[in-house]
Automatic annotation (TrEMBL), chain A:
The lineage of its organism: Bacteria, Pseudomonadati, Pseudomonadota, Alphaproteobacteria, Sphingomonadales. PANTHER family: KDP OPERON TRANSCRIPTIONAL REGULATORY PROTEIN KDPE (PTHR48111:SF50), REGULATOR OF RPOS (PTHR48111). InterPro entries: CheY-like_superfamily, OmpR/PhoB-type_DNA-bd, Sig_transdc_resp-reg_receiver, WalR-like, WH-like_DNA-bd_sf. GO terms for biological process: regulation of DNA-templated transcription. The modification 4-aspartylphosphate is found at D53. Coiled coil: none annotated. It comes from the Bacteria. This is Two-component system KDP operon response regulator KdpE. Keywords: DNA-binding, Phosphoprotein. Residues 127-226 form the OmpR/PhoB-type domain. GO terms for cellular component: cytosol; protein-DNA complex. The keyword DNA-binding applies. It comes from Sphingomonas aerolata. GO terms for molecular function: phosphorelay response regulator activity; transcription cis-regulatory region binding.
From TrEMBL, chain B:
It is an enzyme of class 2 (transferase). One of its GO terms (molecular function) is ATP binding. It is found in: Membrane. The chain crosses the membrane at residues 397-420, 426-442. Keywords: ATP-binding, Kinase, Membrane, Nucleotide-binding, Phosphoprotein, Transferase, Transmembrane, Transmembrane helix, Two-component regulatory system. The keyword Transcription does not apply. Residues 670-880 form the Histidine kinase domain. This is histidine kinase. It catalyses: ATP + protein L-histidine = ADP + protein N-phospho-L-histidine. Its EC number is 2.7.13.3. It is a multi-pass membrane protein.
Amino acid sequence: MPAKILVVDDEAAIRRLLRNTLTRAGYAVVEAEDGRQALQQAAVEHPSAVLLDLGLPDRDGLSLIPLLRTHGDAVILVVSARDAVDEKVTALDLGADDFITKPFDSEELLARLRVALRHHGLSETTPKIVRTGDVSIDLDRRVVFRGAEELHLTRKEHDVLAVLARHIGRVVTHQRVLAAAWGGEEDPRVEYLRIVIRNLRQKLEHPGPVGSVIANELGVGYRLRADA
Amino acid sequence: MPVSGDGRPDPDALLRAAAQEGRGRFKVFLGAAPGVGKTFEMLSEGAARRRDGVDVVVGVVETHGRAETQALTRGHEIIARRAIAYEGRTLQEMDLDAILARAPRLVLVDELAHTNAPGSRHPKRYQDVEELLVAGIDVYSTVNIQHVESLNDIVASFTRVRVRETVPDSVLEMAEIEVVDIPPDELIERLRAGKVYLPHEATRALSHFFSKSNLSALRELALRRAAQAVDARMLDDVRALGLGGTWAGSDRIVVAINELPGADTLVRAAKRVADGLRGPWTALFIETPRVANFSDAEHQRVAAAMTLATQLGAAVATVPATDVVAGIQGFLADARATQLVMGKSHRSRWFEFLHGSVVDRVIRDTPGVTVHVLPVAADPRGRDRGRRRPARWGTPAGYVVTTALVASVTGVASALFHILDLGNVALLYLLPVMAAASLYGLRTGLYAGIASSLAYNFFFLPPVGTLSISNPENLVSVVVLLAIAVATSQLTSRVRAQADLAAASARTNATLAGFLRQITSVNDIDVAAQMICDDVRGLLDVQVVLLVPGIGKSLEILAASDAGYHLGTMDTAAATWALDTGMAAGKGSGTLAASEWLFQPLKAGGHVLGVLGVAKDSAADPVRADQLPLLSSLLDQSALVLERLRLEVEMRDVETVRTRDRLRAALLSSVSHDLRTPLTAVIAAADQLEHGATPDLIATIKAEAARLNRFVANLLDMARVEAGALKLNIEPTDLSDAVTGAAHDARRALEGHAVRLDVPPDLPLVYTDPQLLHHCLLNLLDNAGRYGDPGTEIVIEGRHRFGELRLAVMDHGPGLPPGKETEVFETFRRLEGSDRAVGGTGLGLAIVKAFAEAMDMTVEAGNRDDGSGAAFALIFPRGLIVRDLKPESIA
């Protein structure tokens, strides 16, 4: 049975576009045009994922996130034209799995959805080994390989990479990375995180402008890219 | 006031004419005496104007129960008077506010010299009239000649009736004057017939007042005053038109003010001289060391005379000098004065013997100046010598020390008496006398002289042990001791007074200079205002508030010297009055004196910028008379500073508005072009899709839609910059990270170009807003992708050099035309020759610049060193570079 996706958007044109895209990719689609309908559909249809627009006519989409979280375990992807950084952070903090800014690329949307569905609910039982590109991260043994070569990472680099790997494909906010890697220290500062990420990139990536393993979501956090 | 000889209009006269515009016209019916029919005349003319269709109301008319006058008021609309309760009585006063609200064309106001009941807005009715005129209402009013300020003394001198209610000459000078004239015989006839109402208190003096000779004299004064007014008006007209002409303009009149009663008489006399000669005049006060010993009454008389002079149109000057005559002569020479008016005081012959007669010395030593000497009547109540500073009696401690000194000298002298002769003992006694006189002043010095001579007499002069003197020679030494006490104390007290005076004036100058130096360097109006308040508080020991016009008719408090100040409704009214009229109001001024505060206007450039309020904690008069000059200097300087700051703000505002207008125009043209072009392409492509999709149609739609998206994003960004709503989110940022992200997001715009990142991994982090930086880089890359030749390489290069960090985006292409490097950053600017087909919006680089500057970065545009293409650089100055990272925190 195909996974069921709930599309919440007040614009009929966007709903039609998303329905076409998702159906073509083999998903079943249900729609809601406001917050009330969205909660109804979520309760009745038990969708695997919700594509949620924040600008709804009857209520703020942000307020739906905790409600959807408590009444089900659907993946929540925020799809919004709002690109203010603090809204993204709020959405993630409230429990959204990812966000996509309008206008979006259909292929990218599908890729994000796939990753989120694949990893959703697995955070407790994350596989011991996480792979992305030619990099594999063994979380239990704290070793990292690029191809067959073992990489030598510092303690902080390990801590940062581990928290990203546990949420592979999803954005982890600066706060959460800092708490995970510098939690016990007096002065967790973003500048240290920046340096560690730069060093990690040098060790993990092949030189080149495009297609980094660790993606920077400006002002929000980092994401370890999953193979789509 | 000399006029330029080339017949140009005199600016002062033109200014006066301009000030008249928008004001109501003012006409005064001037009478020689009560009963000539001024009110009747005014009402008749008012009625005539009403018949012509003019909107006339009666503000206040005293009919004194006369039937014919009463009859004339009928038919006029009469504004009801306002009742004011005062000390158990109810007084009926003209209702100024009701008239202002009614706003007639012409209002009739009787008795211009009337004094209003306490608690009214203005103490004097002529001030009410002034307010009506300012409001643009024409006013007819009446006044008798003896109420005219400058003629007050003359009238009193022959009628022996002095009226207390006077009208300043300046008020009459604004007015058109019509003399209401009847022959004296007829007036006396009317008086006998009981047709003249006379105020109760005046009846006693009447038989004298209404004598034929008096009435004739009064009549002459009235006619002459009217003629003078006509003269003055003609002169003003002539000057305003620049019609040259001859008049006696070469005379300059100075009146020397003294502290004696009658100083005001001197001022009025000088005014008449000045009017007669039509010359400018100055009231001069010479500040000698004696000023320090003035009683409060004397201080106030000088201040009152100076104020009166200002009201009568004089300039005023206070000149410090040690000698009155020298001071006057110096000033006369500086001012090139030709006439001097001064008073001959009734000083005692003894005083003149000691100090010399000032008048005699001036007349003898001042060639080329006509000296008018007026006898100044001594007012017995004014001789308040007893209220001099108690310090003249010296301090009790002085007497104790002096006694001890005399005793010890006596002790020493008796110890040494066997080796000293009598004359030397007398010399020893000089010591306590000179010490006491120089340290404690005249009285203590005299006491020392007496004590010394008594001791000398008793202990040393034969017969020893008695106070009698056997040898007459020894009497001389006693007298000499006393004389030396007098001489020494006089000398030292004069020296000390001069030093005090010099120190005080040096202190004032130093504080003023310090105030100026500080305040001129300030660029923020709030800081300047606070500084003004604090400095005025420090200098005058008063509470200070600085108020400026707020929104609507409200007042806004800009700064205050103390947090706990209180402004009641009366205070606010006074402040508003000072702001509206540009004249002082509140305690110690002529207007709304019931306020606790004195509000002084801050005037510059012909308008009132705000008001400065001062108040004493102890509800006393806020500013002593001798501090007024200092206060007015402070006010002038403060006003200039506020004016400068205001102008700067205004200029900035004008510049902002101009930029915004230019931008708006450019935006309209850009939006129509840049939105419609891609939309047209998309619509056309979609139309064709109906006939079957082809890959290049879809590519067109995608590309044009992306272009639209970029344009909308830039418009939003620009709107945020323009609205000043740019919220910065500065955080330490890794440039290699930023560049990688931007290159990734701009990959579509960079299609067909190879992109090389040349950003060393050891580049330091920078403080910046990562999102704004991302937008900057996107626009720079977009620009490079569009203007770089197809197939060429685009380089992003980061360098840390000379302390600053430089991030450059370089393309291979035509580059920028030389000299146009800075223009590219202007909004909607596309350099000439750049092809519209390239599809730039002209917004991108302007956004780069605006964002960069918001983050304290700078931008640079130019060509690559080898001339192979354009180079755009973002420069992060030293201060934006992250330092002091602890290595252990990343281990």
